[in-house]
Design goal:
The structure is a single chain. By secondary structure, the protein is an alpha/beta fold. It has two domains: 4-117, UDP-N-acetylmuramoyl-L-alanine:D-glutamate ligase, CATH 3.40.1190; 127-260, Protein-Tyrosine Phosphatase, Chain A, CATH 3.90.190.20. It contains nine helices and nine strands. The strands form two sheets. It has a six-stranded mixed β-sheet with strand order 4-5-9-6-7-8, sandwiched between helices. A three-stranded parallel β-sheet has the order 1-2-3, with helices on one face. The model has no long low-confidence stretch (mean pLDDT 91).
Amino acid sequence: SFQIYSTKTFRPHIAVILNIDIDHLNWHKKLKHYVCSKLRITKNQTFEDYLIINKNLKNLNFKTKAKIIEINTKETEILNLERIKLKGKHNLENISVAIQISKIFNLKLEKVKEIIENFSPLEHRLEFLGTFNGVKIYNDAKSTTVQATRKAIEAIDGFIILIAGGIDKGGNFKDLRNSLNKKAKLVILIGKDKERIKKDINFKNTVFANTLEEALNIAIKYSEKEDTILFSPGCASFDMFKNYMDRGNQFKNLVNKLKAK
Protein backbone atom coordinates (compact mmCIF):
# COMPACT_ATOMS: atom_id res chain seq x y z
CA SER A 1 0.00 0.00 0.00
CA PHE A 2 2.79 2.45 0.82
CA GLN A 3 4.51 1.52 -2.46
CA ILE A 4 1.47 2.03 -4.66
CA TYR A 5 0.69 5.30 -2.86
CA SER A 6 3.49 7.08 -4.72
CA THR A 7 2.57 5.76 -8.19
CA LYS A 8 1.30 8.24 -10.78
CA THR A 9 1.07 6.51 -14.17
CA PHE A 10 0.85 2.83 -13.17
CA ARG A 11 -1.94 1.11 -15.11
CA PRO A 12 -2.39 -2.66 -14.72
CA HIS A 13 -4.44 -4.45 -17.36
CA ILE A 14 -5.78 -6.69 -14.59
CA ALA A 15 -5.93 -5.43 -11.01
CA VAL A 16 -6.98 -7.55 -8.04
CA ILE A 17 -8.14 -6.41 -4.61
CA LEU A 18 -8.59 -9.48 -2.43
CA ASN A 19 -9.31 -7.65 0.80
CA ILE A 20 -8.74 -4.44 2.70
CA ASP A 21 -8.09 -4.69 6.41
CA ILE A 22 -6.25 -2.70 9.05
CA ASP A 23 -2.55 -2.80 8.17
CA HIS A 24 0.52 -0.57 7.90
CA LEU A 25 -1.04 2.07 10.17
CA ASN A 26 2.47 2.59 11.56
CA TRP A 27 3.10 4.24 8.16
CA HIS A 28 -0.32 5.46 6.97
CA LYS A 29 -1.45 6.62 10.46
CA LYS A 30 -5.13 6.64 9.42
CA LEU A 31 -7.26 3.82 7.96
CA LYS A 32 -8.76 6.17 5.36
CA HIS A 33 -5.29 6.95 4.01
CA TYR A 34 -4.52 3.22 3.80
CA VAL A 35 -7.77 2.43 1.94
CA CYS A 36 -7.26 5.28 -0.54
CA SER A 37 -3.73 4.06 -1.20
CA LYS A 38 -4.99 0.52 -1.93
CA LEU A 39 -7.61 1.83 -4.35
CA ARG A 40 -4.99 3.69 -6.40
CA ILE A 41 -4.38 0.37 -8.17
CA THR A 42 -7.42 1.04 -10.36
CA LYS A 43 -7.04 4.81 -10.74
CA ASN A 44 -5.53 4.75 -14.25
CA GLN A 45 -7.38 1.74 -15.59
CA THR A 46 -9.57 2.15 -18.68
CA PHE A 47 -12.58 0.37 -20.16
CA GLU A 48 -10.15 -2.13 -21.69
CA ASP A 49 -8.95 -3.26 -18.26
CA TYR A 50 -10.29 -5.52 -15.49
CA LEU A 51 -10.70 -5.08 -11.75
CA ILE A 52 -11.24 -8.33 -9.84
CA ILE A 53 -12.55 -7.51 -6.39
CA ASN A 54 -14.04 -9.13 -3.33
CA LYS A 55 -17.78 -8.43 -3.40
CA ASN A 56 -17.58 -7.22 0.22
CA LEU A 57 -15.52 -4.26 -0.99
CA LYS A 58 -17.94 -3.00 -3.65
CA ASN A 59 -19.56 -0.68 -1.11
CA LEU A 60 -16.37 1.34 -0.83
CA ASN A 61 -16.65 4.78 -2.36
CA PHE A 62 -14.32 4.53 -5.35
CA LYS A 63 -14.45 5.09 -9.09
CA THR A 64 -13.08 2.88 -11.83
CA LYS A 65 -13.45 2.63 -15.57
CA ALA A 66 -12.38 -1.00 -15.56
CA LYS A 67 -14.70 -3.95 -16.00
CA ILE A 68 -15.49 -5.21 -12.48
CA ILE A 69 -15.43 -8.95 -11.81
CA GLU A 70 -16.45 -10.26 -8.38
CA ILE A 71 -14.39 -13.01 -6.79
CA ASN A 72 -16.49 -16.17 -6.94
CA THR A 73 -15.33 -19.40 -5.27
CA LYS A 74 -17.67 -21.37 -7.54
CA GLU A 75 -14.81 -21.14 -10.01
CA THR A 76 -13.06 -23.84 -7.95
CA GLU A 77 -15.73 -26.41 -8.85
CA ILE A 78 -13.58 -27.51 -11.79
CA LEU A 79 -10.94 -28.74 -9.32
CA ASN A 80 -10.49 -31.85 -7.24
CA LEU A 81 -10.31 -30.03 -3.90
CA GLU A 82 -8.87 -33.08 -2.14
CA ARG A 83 -5.71 -32.58 -4.18
CA ILE A 84 -5.31 -28.92 -3.27
CA LYS A 85 -2.39 -28.38 -0.89
CA LEU A 86 -3.35 -24.80 -0.02
CA LYS A 87 -5.33 -24.68 3.22
CA GLY A 88 -8.19 -22.38 4.16
CA LYS A 89 -11.16 -20.59 2.64
CA HIS A 90 -8.99 -17.56 1.85
CA ASN A 91 -6.87 -19.71 -0.46
CA LEU A 92 -9.98 -20.83 -2.33
CA GLU A 93 -10.55 -17.14 -3.03
CA ASN A 94 -6.96 -16.82 -4.25
CA ILE A 95 -7.43 -19.84 -6.51
CA SER A 96 -10.69 -18.40 -7.84
CA VAL A 97 -8.86 -15.24 -8.86
CA ALA A 98 -6.20 -17.27 -10.68
CA ILE A 99 -8.92 -19.11 -12.61
CA GLN A 100 -10.73 -15.87 -13.46
CA ILE A 101 -7.51 -14.33 -14.77
CA SER A 102 -6.78 -17.45 -16.84
CA LYS A 103 -10.21 -17.07 -18.46
CA ILE A 104 -9.45 -13.45 -19.39
CA PHE A 105 -6.34 -14.69 -21.21
CA ASN A 106 -8.25 -17.64 -22.74
CA LEU A 107 -5.91 -20.20 -21.22
CA LYS A 108 -6.82 -23.88 -21.39
CA LEU A 109 -8.71 -24.73 -18.20
CA GLU A 110 -7.39 -28.29 -18.11
CA LYS A 111 -3.83 -26.95 -17.94
CA VAL A 112 -4.84 -24.40 -15.29
CA LYS A 113 -6.49 -27.19 -13.29
CA GLU A 114 -3.34 -29.33 -13.50
CA ILE A 115 -1.08 -26.51 -12.32
CA ILE A 116 -3.30 -25.54 -9.38
CA GLU A 117 -3.77 -29.11 -8.17
CA ASN A 118 0.00 -29.64 -8.19
CA PHE A 119 0.91 -26.28 -6.66
CA SER A 120 2.80 -26.43 -3.34
CA PRO A 121 2.44 -23.67 -0.71
CA LEU A 122 5.21 -21.11 -0.59
CA GLU A 123 7.70 -21.05 2.26
CA HIS A 124 6.56 -19.40 5.52
CA ARG A 125 2.89 -19.34 4.42
CA LEU A 126 1.03 -22.00 6.44
CA GLU A 127 3.98 -24.23 5.65
CA PHE A 128 3.59 -27.72 7.07
CA LEU A 129 6.78 -28.76 8.87
CA GLY A 130 5.71 -32.26 9.80
CA THR A 131 4.73 -33.86 13.09
CA PHE A 132 6.41 -34.36 16.46
CA ASN A 133 4.92 -36.98 18.77
CA GLY A 134 1.67 -36.80 16.83
CA VAL A 135 1.51 -32.98 16.95
CA LYS A 136 1.35 -31.12 13.62
CA ILE A 137 3.53 -28.02 13.27
CA TYR A 138 2.94 -25.14 10.85
CA ASN A 139 5.22 -22.22 10.00
CA ASP A 140 3.17 -19.14 9.06
CA ALA A 141 5.93 -16.60 9.68
CA LYS A 142 4.77 -14.49 6.71
CA SER A 143 1.73 -13.51 8.79
CA THR A 144 2.33 -9.86 9.66
CA THR A 145 -1.33 -8.87 10.18
CA VAL A 146 -4.13 -9.84 12.53
CA GLN A 147 -6.27 -10.84 9.56
CA ALA A 148 -3.60 -13.26 8.29
CA THR A 149 -3.33 -14.91 11.69
CA ARG A 150 -7.12 -15.20 11.99
CA LYS A 151 -7.34 -16.90 8.61
CA ALA A 152 -4.51 -19.25 9.54
CA ILE A 153 -6.32 -20.25 12.73
CA GLU A 154 -9.53 -20.84 10.80
CA ALA A 155 -7.70 -22.95 8.20
CA ILE A 156 -6.43 -25.45 10.79
CA ASP A 157 -8.61 -28.41 11.80
CA GLY A 158 -8.76 -29.30 15.48
CA PHE A 159 -7.21 -27.62 18.50
CA ILE A 160 -4.19 -25.31 18.21
CA ILE A 161 -1.43 -23.86 20.32
CA LEU A 162 -0.67 -20.44 18.84
CA ILE A 163 2.72 -18.72 18.93
CA ALA A 164 2.31 -15.05 18.00
CA GLY A 165 3.65 -11.55 18.64
CA GLY A 166 6.23 -9.02 17.53
CA ILE A 167 5.75 -5.39 16.54
CA ASP A 168 2.09 -4.44 16.21
CA LYS A 169 1.34 -2.56 12.97
CA GLY A 170 -1.93 -1.05 14.20
CA GLY A 171 -4.06 -4.18 13.93
CA ASN A 172 -7.02 -4.97 16.16
CA PHE A 173 -6.14 -8.16 18.02
CA LYS A 174 -9.62 -8.21 19.53
CA ASP A 175 -10.63 -9.70 16.17
CA LEU A 176 -8.90 -12.93 17.20
CA ARG A 177 -11.06 -13.50 20.26
CA ASN A 178 -13.79 -15.54 18.58
CA SER A 179 -11.36 -17.80 16.67
CA LEU A 180 -9.19 -18.35 19.73
CA ASN A 181 -12.14 -19.21 21.96
CA LYS A 182 -13.24 -21.85 19.44
CA LYS A 183 -9.87 -23.46 18.68
CA ALA A 184 -7.00 -22.45 20.94
CA LYS A 185 -5.78 -24.41 23.97
CA LEU A 186 -2.90 -22.04 24.66
CA VAL A 187 -1.50 -18.78 23.27
CA ILE A 188 2.22 -18.06 23.64
CA LEU A 189 3.25 -14.45 22.97
CA ILE A 190 6.71 -13.14 22.11
CA GLY A 191 8.11 -9.79 21.06
CA LYS A 192 7.84 -6.10 21.79
CA ASP A 193 4.06 -5.75 21.98
CA LYS A 194 3.15 -9.03 23.69
CA GLU A 195 1.62 -7.36 26.75
CA ARG A 196 -0.76 -5.21 24.71
CA ILE A 197 -1.70 -8.16 22.54
CA LYS A 198 -2.51 -10.23 25.63
CA LYS A 199 -4.83 -7.48 26.84
CA ASP A 200 -6.58 -7.28 23.46
CA ILE A 201 -7.15 -11.00 22.91
CA ASN A 202 -8.32 -11.45 26.51
CA PHE A 203 -7.62 -15.19 26.32
CA LYS A 204 -7.17 -16.77 29.75
CA ASN A 205 -4.60 -19.39 28.71
CA THR A 206 -1.96 -16.91 27.54
CA VAL A 207 1.70 -16.97 28.54
CA PHE A 208 4.81 -15.01 27.58
CA ALA A 209 8.12 -16.29 26.20
CA ASN A 210 11.35 -14.32 25.87
CA THR A 211 12.61 -16.18 22.81
CA LEU A 212 11.17 -18.18 19.93
CA GLU A 213 12.95 -21.28 21.23
CA GLU A 214 11.33 -20.88 24.63
CA ALA A 215 7.93 -20.43 22.97
CA LEU A 216 8.33 -23.63 20.96
CA ASN A 217 9.43 -25.57 24.04
CA ILE A 218 6.34 -24.40 25.92
CA ALA A 219 4.14 -25.36 22.99
CA ILE A 220 5.63 -28.84 22.86
CA LYS A 221 5.25 -29.28 26.62
CA TYR A 222 1.52 -28.52 26.62
CA SER A 223 0.55 -30.07 23.30
CA GLU A 224 -1.16 -33.44 22.93
CA LYS A 225 -1.51 -35.89 20.08
CA GLU A 226 -3.69 -34.49 17.25
CA ASP A 227 -3.04 -30.88 18.35
CA THR A 228 -1.44 -28.33 16.02
CA ILE A 229 1.31 -25.87 16.91
CA LEU A 230 0.78 -22.80 14.74
CA PHE A 231 3.45 -20.12 14.48
CA SER A 232 1.52 -17.18 13.02
CA PRO A 233 2.85 -13.92 14.53
CA GLY A 234 0.32 -11.37 13.20
CA CYS A 235 3.03 -8.73 13.64
CA ALA A 236 6.12 -7.26 12.04
CA SER A 237 9.36 -9.06 12.87
CA PHE A 238 12.00 -6.38 13.28
CA ASP A 239 12.14 -6.41 17.09
CA MET A 240 13.67 -9.90 17.18
CA PHE A 241 14.52 -10.84 13.59
CA LYS A 242 15.93 -9.37 10.37
CA ASN A 243 12.62 -9.92 8.55
CA TYR A 244 9.78 -12.44 8.32
CA MET A 245 11.98 -14.86 6.34
CA ASP A 246 14.62 -14.87 9.06
CA ARG A 247 11.83 -15.38 11.60
CA GLY A 248 10.47 -18.34 9.65
CA ASN A 249 13.88 -19.89 9.03
CA GLN A 250 14.76 -19.69 12.72
CA PHE A 251 11.49 -21.41 13.59
CA LYS A 252 12.13 -24.14 11.01
CA ASN A 253 15.65 -24.69 12.37
CA LEU A 254 14.27 -25.07 15.89
CA VAL A 255 11.68 -27.58 14.72
CA ASN A 256 14.29 -29.56 12.77
CA LYS A 257 16.55 -29.74 15.85
CA LEU A 258 13.60 -30.91 17.89
CA LYS A 259 12.74 -33.67 15.42
CA ALA A 260 16.38 -34.76 15.22
CA LYS A 261 16.61 -35.51 18.96
